Amino acid sequence: MRLPRLSRRRPAAKSRILPRRRRRRRRAPILHVPDGVARFTQDAVRAPAAALHALPPRARLATVGMVLTLGLLAGLYFFWLRDSSLVSVEHVRVDGVSGGNAGRIEARLTAAARDMTTLHVDDDALREAVAAYPTVRGIEANADFPHTLHIIVAQRVPVAALTSGRRSIAVASDGTLLPGDRTRSLPAVPMHALPIGTKLTNPGTLRAIAVLAAAPAALRARVDELDKGKGGLRAILRGGGTLVFGGTDLLQAKWMAASIVLRDPTAKGARYLDVRIPRRPVAGGLPPEIDPTTGERIDPTTGQPFDGGSDSTTDPLSADTTDPNADGSTDTTGDPPAGTSDPSADGTNTATDSQDSQLAGASP
Predict the structure, then answer these.
(1) What residue ranges do the domains of the chain occupy?
(2) Would the pLDDT of 363 be above 70?
(3) Helices 35-54 + 57-79 axis angle, to 10
(4) Which pairs from 50-54 meet CB under 8 Å and 24+ separation?
(5) Strand, helix or coil for residue 314
(6) What is the pLDDT of residue 23?
(7) Per-residue pLDDT tens digits for 102-141
(8) Beta bridge partners of 142
(9) What are the φ/ψ torsions at residue 194 (nearest 5 degrees)?
(10) How confident is the model over 5-41, as pLDDT tens digits?
(11) I need a surface site. Which of 11, 48, 190, 191 has the fewest CB within 10 A?
(12) What is the DSSP letter of 267?
């Protein structure tokens, strides 16, 4: 008897899917801390705990309670009370603002301050609110608890008006242009073309601005125009007369000398005042004095008789062959007036009839 043939099962094919490789994790670099730093850190952490354990139980409990209370109060202050409506700014007082943009500056500062509290004053936000106005040099804010904020504005004061034809623009002592300020009452500084931008960069004009910036306010108000001519920088006064400064050295001393001479009654009637050497100012163009013994006409500046019928009203600095602009387009140095007490005078200037009016004798 034949037995049935048993079927052989073929073994299942092996899966060809390869197992995923495990990615090796990169170990973080070990930070090697110096022994001294590690020891100091451990001591700083252990010291408060050791001090706390050294206290009696009641004192330890009171200390922990005090620390928790202070932390809670600090959290309430920084996250709630500091920006709460209980201390919101309701009254704003702005001081120190003047000029044509005073109303706009005050309105912007007030609007920015309304979003603050007296416990959280944002000085940067106040400066940003008036960043478009170059007249504002700085801002100081003082909070008056609970609802008042006092803002003090430091402004750039215009000292001159840059002019080119019929156009003009105010400028501060640091060369910042102030387009919104009025220029009618400011001393004029002529230029070929007005500067572009927010800052004056012309070296010659900056020297002229430095002369006006160093002047006392009362004397600067008397200057009608500051220009470069024979003898250097010259200031033409309102009402007549010329102040000759030359360069920009010793400006404080030069203005002080000019102020003293303008107060002197004996200088009344002079057509120009040379303060290039401030310790020896010279008032020129004074009317002649008559010598009672000889009847000769004496020059009050030099004390010598006039030669060849020359007139004491002649201003040796009135002959100006240089560029009439003070913007540095030409570089000329004027000579001191001939026949004056200025030791640097070389007598090479040609005397011409002066076109300057007499210096006003009123005190500045």
Answers:
(1) 86-155, 202-364
(2) no
(3) 110
(4) none
(5) coil
(6) 64
(7) 899 999 999 999 999 999 899 999 999 999 999 999 999 9
(8) 150
(9) -70, 145
(10) 655 555 555 555 556 666 666 666 666 667 776 777 7
(11) 11
(12) G
Q: Are strands 242-246 and 272-274 parallel, antiparallel or unpaired?
A: parallel
Helix (H) or strand (E) holding 60: helix 57-79
CA distance 338 to 276: 14
d(CA 164, CA 113): 40
Q: How far is CA 1 from the centre of its chain?
A: 124
CATH 3.40.50.1000 fits 86-155, yes or no: no
For the chain, the residue count is: 364
Can you state the percent helix, strand and coil of the chain, rounding each to 5? Answer: 25, 20, 50
pTM over 0.85: no
Element (H, E) at 178: strand 177-178
Report CA Rg, the chain.
Answer: 41
C-alpha distances out from residue 31 to 27, 34, 38, 39, 41, Å: 12, 10, 12, 15, 15
CB neighbourhood size of 165 (10 A): 10
Report the alpha-carbon distance of residue 310 to residue 342 in Å, rounded. 20
- DSSP element (H, E) containing 259: helix 251-263
